[in-house]
Amino acid sequence: MVVYVDLVFFTNLAVDGIVLLLTAKVRRIYPAKSRVIGAAVLGAIYAASMFLTSVPFLYSFAGKVLVSLAMVFLTFGYGGPMQLLRNIGAFYTVNFATLGGVIGLSYLIRSSDTPWGGMSVTQDGGIALQWQMQLGLFVTTFLLSVWLFHGTSETRRKRQNVEALIWDVEVRVEGRTWTVRGLLDTGNRLYEPLTRTPVMIMEASVWKEQLPAGWCDRLKGESADSLVAELGTDDPEPFAWSHRLRLIPYRAVNGSPKLMLGFKPDSVTLTHQGQTPLTSVRVLIGLDGGTLSSDASYRAIVHPDLAQADAKASAPSQPA
């Protein structure tokens, strides 16, 4: 078998560099490029040296761990024992995920006449797997593994970021309670203009049983004031919450002024990850005719004022 040491060196240089960059991204650390290149060169020299020298210790478990430690140390520095252990753990996780993906993908696309193709039985009864891959196929499967790992880790990170902003919302009206999950939006600055009461947005479908028939669907395309104008005192079944309804002016994304249908609850209680509940009576519920979350992970947008400790049990200075 002919081995091109220069090809081994540059292949490992690229692979180690990508793995170190992925590790940095997972750990949210931004090392200097020179440190990453230096560590990748060390890994490439280590991989190529097996064809140039014969030092058995280098390829023992202890030798591999020492080289890994050296690569991580060169890239990220020391930073304390716990920091080093976390970096090492992330480095091995990325290695196992990407290079393991290479092996898995290569076997997935490989064809054989029998289920035992590529397998052989050793003298001691073990099973040996034959793994042969051309450079082009290796590069393709490695890049695909990196893409899959990066996409999965990014999705998980974004999901964790969203979950950190999720609150349990309990709305109380006339002795009844409705509980939904809400996303805390720190950029939400929607207030009722006259009383400066904060407005929390909620899907109208939560209140489908309480609103007049058809309002949930009509809110998607009709103006809120036209719906309110339909309410008459001579209706055989007058809307029980008509005295709670509010028309809340706001500006749409394009800057045009609009009216949002809302109502005044008795109270809203927020709970976040076992913390002390925060209750506010100075709040309005704005109704959205659509869906706030594509994956239904939340059904309300929480106003930041309601998530502050001084909002607890706050009474309005004037009726909203």
Automatic annotation (TrEMBL):
This is Sigma-E processing peptidase SpoIIGA. NCBIfam families: spore_II_GA (TIGR02854). The gene is spoIIGA. InterPro entries: SpoIIGA (IPR005081). The keyword Transmembrane helix applies. Keywords: Membrane, Transmembrane, Transmembrane helix. The chain crosses the membrane at residues 6-24, 36-55, 61-78, 90-109, 129-149. The keyword Transmembrane helix applies. It comes from Cohnella yongneupensis.
